[in-house]
Amino acid sequence: MLRISLSNVWLVIKREYLERVRQRSFIVLTVLLPAIVGGAFFIPAKLSSMKSSKTQHLVVVTSDLKFGEIVRQQLLPSAKADDEKASADKDDKDVDDDDKSSNNYTIDVDSTPSEAERMALQNRVSSGDIDGYLWLSDDAVTARKVVYEGRESSGFLEKSWLSGQLDRAILLRELAQRGVSGDQADVLLKPVKLEMVRLKGGHETRANDKGMFFAILIMVMLLYMAVIFYGVSVMRAVLEEKNSRVMEVLLSSATSTELMAGKLVGVGAVGLTQIGIWITMAAVYALPALAASASAGEIHIAPLTLVAFALFFLLGYLLYSSVYAAVGAVITSEQEGQQLQFIILLPLILAVFMMGPVMRAPDSPVAMWTSMVPFFSPILMYVRIAIQPPPAWQIALSLLLLVATIAGILVLCARIYRIGILMYGKRPTLPEIMKWLKYANR
Amino acid sequence: MNTVELNKICKNYDEFVAVDHLSLVIQPGEVYGLLGPNGAGKTSTLRMMIGITVPDSGVVSMFGETFRRAHMQRLGYLPEERGLYKKMKVLDQLVFLGQLKGMSGDDATQKAEQWCERLGLKEWTDKKVEELSKGMQQKAQFIGAVVHDPQFVVMDEPFSGLDPSSAVVLKDAFLDLKKAGKTLLFSTHRMDTAERLCDSICLINHGRAVLEGDLGKIRAGYGKRNVQMKYEGDAKFLQDAKLVQSFNDYGNYVEVRLAAGADPQDLLRAATSCARLSKFELMEPSLEEIFIEAVGKANA
Q: What is the pLDDT of residues A397-407, one digit of tens each?
């Protein structure tokens, strides 16, 4: 076998990288995508904040004025603020609750739950006089089946918050009726917060669900995005070279393995550059906001997880790109490539499906074996490391298998590439590809 | 030390035999033509010679040694179809190709600029390849093959699809390389081109060498059996099967192929007896005729 000339690989990398980064489409995409994504987040957020900043006028209908007052207290922002103050010294409230505080209500209590009153309220809702009413007749409360009628159907979060506050109001009334004072009731109703602590080698490690989940989510998203965006451009690069016959000239100077390796790393580096720029932009934009929010302190990711992130992301990206390169070497047109794309992505999708079982039991044999498979390990081994680091030999073995597979695919597709470029017209069948591999062996 | 020596190389693609026990020798400093009709196996032979593909059997030697990777740096290759990155600037591309052959960036830039100036591409070095005309692309491709000053230049159909003026520029550059002592090999299906430029040839058909060696000797071996003549009057002498094997009337003159064993003097006498001659010249056969005859023999 021919030896690899690193200077040739470097030349190919440099060419691929510079040519691509200089292209207008690269610059446009680099700037445009954050703008689109930013817009996609910013505009709905802006719209919903516009809506919720308006004060909503509600009417609580109940024959029991005292109960009406309790409900009113529960729905008013001041009540919530008290609520939070009571619990803030020990732990922080759920984010969902914080979101709700932007909603302002004006609450009237109506003590005549009659059909006539209901008709009148419905008319007031339609005319826009009030935003909605809560029908808390004795029957409804006893049956715990309460109706809210409003002009706008409320969102999921609003509904669950409303029903939570009503639960609390009803409980408070029941407790009051049994002679429990308001302060005592607060003590009784105080929610439990469970903290998970992991014991490992005598050390206490505070399980950090948020940070861990965050780290896993970003990995999966980035890997997906990189593979879908840049895998295809590796495929296209190989195909273009084949169709424009540049290959023939290059092969009189360099080996196909050098060309493939250079192409893979060059196009890969372009993808990393772009993602790097995006991450930097996102960080500059989001960090101040994150730092300001109370929950930021909870997101800290272990250094090992960060290292694993970089390693498995790079290798996973290289692995899938090399498969794309092989497809590029076999096909004769991009349309053919599109049909094959789904098959390439299938292992990645499977790995995402297997994340659930692996996360539940990171030390199980199933988790161990699946996280060794090169096409799964970039996600599954990484998930295991993020949750509960497996023995070092397992990490090392999965990395080794991953690197070996990438090298194997590279050599294989360099062969297909070399023979495939000398044939035109039709896509080769599988037996033909096998034959090529044999030819190239000689 | 021969520049190239092919010893019984073979290449099959599935059932199809592309090259069949082909042997040839290319001497240093000569212009060598690889001739044959389309599909004869010319391109397959060239590719094996310079290491793009590997023969199924047989040996390729270059510069007196069995072909190896290091030889690639000393040869230049111009493929039949244009092989340049369309979106890349001309100069960047030539420098890239030069560097792949082991040149330094500065050296490659300097040489590429010199060549571009010489072939009239100076104004185009900053343009993308796709903006160039076909002729200019071919010139750029040619520079790509010679920018690293190779000892041996291999060109696959270098003159096909070129307008006459570009063809002349390229031919001159080609001959300059010869004067500089380079060995040149090109393939063509145009016998007249080969006739004008080559020192030696290899005629191949169906992957086999039909004729190989020094062009002058090959032609001499076929003897002077053609007569070019101009006449006025009766042309019945052309019908004499004992003297004339075949003839071709080109309007201005007639080209006659003598029958086997016929004496040209007999034809001259027969012609003067019934017509007035203004030209009677004995000629070596054209390469095209040699080819047709050789292929006919090989197939028989």
A: 999 999 999 98
Q: For residues A125 and A320, what is the distance between their CA atoms, to the nearest angstrom?
A: 57
In the block, tokens 């270059």 appear at: B62
Rounded to the nearest 10 degrees, the angle between the axes of helix A77-88 and helix A65-75 is 60
What is the number of domains present in chain B? 2
Whether B101 and B123 map to the same domain: the answer is: yes
Chain A residues 118-137 within an 8 A CB cutoff of chain B? none
Enclosing H/E stretch for B246: strand B244-249
Interchain contact A383–B (C-beta under 8 A): no
Residue type, A246: V
DSSP B51-106: TSS--SEEEEEETTEE--GGGGGGEEEE-SS--S-TTSBHHHHHHHHHHHTT--HH
B164-179 and B134-146 helices, crossing angle to 10°:
10
B187 in the same domain as B265: no
For residue A193 the two structure tokens come to 């917060």
The CA-atom distances, in angstroms, between B1 and each of A355, B34, B60, B63, B77 are 66, 20, 14, 6, 21
Under an 8 A CB cutoff, do A2 and B69 touch? yes
Over residues B171-203, the pLDDT tens digits come to 899 889 999 999 999 998 888 888 888 999 999
Is the ipTM here above 0.90? Answer: no
Q: Say how far apart CA B240 and CA B248 lie, in whole Å.
A: 15
Helix, strand, or coil (residue A121): helix
Whether residues B209 and B230 share a domain: the answer is no
Say if B56 is an interface residue toward chain A (CB within 8 Å).
Answer: yes
Residue A91 has pLDDT above 50, yes or no: no
What does B2-37 look like in DSSP terms, one character per residue? Answer: -SEEEEEEEEEETTEEEEEEEEEEE-TT-EEEEE-S
Same domain, B100 and B51: yes
Q: Which of A248, A253, A442 minimises the CB distance to B79?
A: A248
Residue A433 above 80 pLDDT? no
Interval B233-280: pLDDT, tens = 887 888 887 888 888 888 788 888 888 778 888 888 888 888 888 888
Residue B82 is nearest to which of A245, A251, A442, comparing CB atoms? A245
